[in-house]
C-alpha cells in the first residue's frame, strides 16, 4: 500500500533531517531540492529555529538498538604478562616428596594468575601446588587456591623443562607478596644465590596447608620460574645480567633490594629479574631461550653484562661480537637498553690491568652507540671522578658488587633514563 506524501515527509523528518524539513511539510514535493537551488537555501534560512532554542544532543543507537548519548567505550585490552621471574640456573634434587613455599613479590595487578615451574638437571614430578597471599613468619593471609596443569593437579617433566599452570582466578595488586607452595620430588631448577627470605621447605605433602609451613629455611628461588598476571596490557621489562643484577650483596640477600626491583617500584611497572651470578655473554646466549625469550609480553630489555668476560686476550672484540649477537636475538622481542660496566676495583681471576683497560674500552664503545642508541650509563653515576676504576664511597661491598646504597643509585639512574627516554 502506498504512503501519502505528507506522511512520507513526516517519516523523513523523524529520520534526523530536522533542519531541512522545518516549515516545508505541508504541501511540499517528495523530491529534495538540488543542492544549488537558491530558493531552497533561502527557505531553510528563513525557517531556521530561533538561536535561543535548546538543541538536543545527537543520539546514537548501540548494538541493542537502545538510544544513548554516546557509543560505549571499548574494554581495555588485557593480557598475561610476567609479574615475577627468576632465571634458575642451578639444580637441587630431593629424593622423597618435599613441600617448598616460595615467598615472592609480584609487580602486576590483575584478576587471574598462572605459575610456571622449571625442572633442574633431571626429571621432576610436581604432585600438588597452590597459591595464596603471604603474610609474615611464613603465615598465609588468604586461603590457598589449588593450581592445575592441563586440568590435572600435578605433572612430570624431563630435565630443563618449563611447565605452566592453568590460569586461576586470584586477584592481586601491584607488589603483593605471594606464597607459592608445592610438593615435588626429583631435580628442581634453583637460583644461584640466597635472595628470598621468608621461604622454606618441609618433608612431606603440605601444599594446601593454611598455617605456617614450618620446616627449614630455604631462601633460594626453587622450582618457581615465572608468575604471569592477567591485567591491563602495558610495559614490562626484563633485566639481563650477572650477580650485580641478580642482587648479590652478601651471603644472605633479598631480591627486593636488587636494582631491578627498585626500578619496578619507582616506575610502577614489572621489571623482572633474569640475572645469574657468574654469567657472561656465552652463558646468557646459551640460556636465552629458556630464561628470557620464553617470557610473554616483555616490551623492554635492560642488559648489564660483560664484567665477567673482561681480562682475557681479545676480550673486548669478543664481548662486542657477543653483545651484537645478543641484541640481534632480542630485537624482535623487546626494545634494548644497554648499560656501561660498573667500576671494578679488583679482579678475582684475570689480570687486573687488562680488566681496567678493557672495561674503559668497552664502555667507550657502548657510549659511542656500538650497542645501539639506548644507553644507560651506570658507570658514570657509580664511579669516582678522580679515579674511574673506583666506586664512590659507600656504593660497593667488595670492590665488585654494589652495596644496597649502590643498588639505589643504579635504580635511580635506570628509572630516570627509562622515564625520560623510554616514556615510562
UniProtKB/TrEMBL annotation:
Residues annotated as domain SGNH hydrolase-type esterase: 239-409
PANTHER family reported in the protein's UniProt record: GDSL-LIKE LIPASE/ACYLHYDROLASE, PUTATIVE (AFU_ORTHOLOGUE AFUA_2G00820)-RELATED, GDSL-LIKE LIPASE_ACYLHYDROLASE, PUTATIVE (AFU_ORTHOLOGUE AFUA_2G00820)-RELATED
Name of the protein: Putative secreted protein
Molecular-function GO term, any one: hydrolase activity, acting on ester bonds
Cytoplasm found in the keyword field: no
Span of the signal peptide: 1-22
Keywords: Signal
Transmembrane annotation, as ranges: none
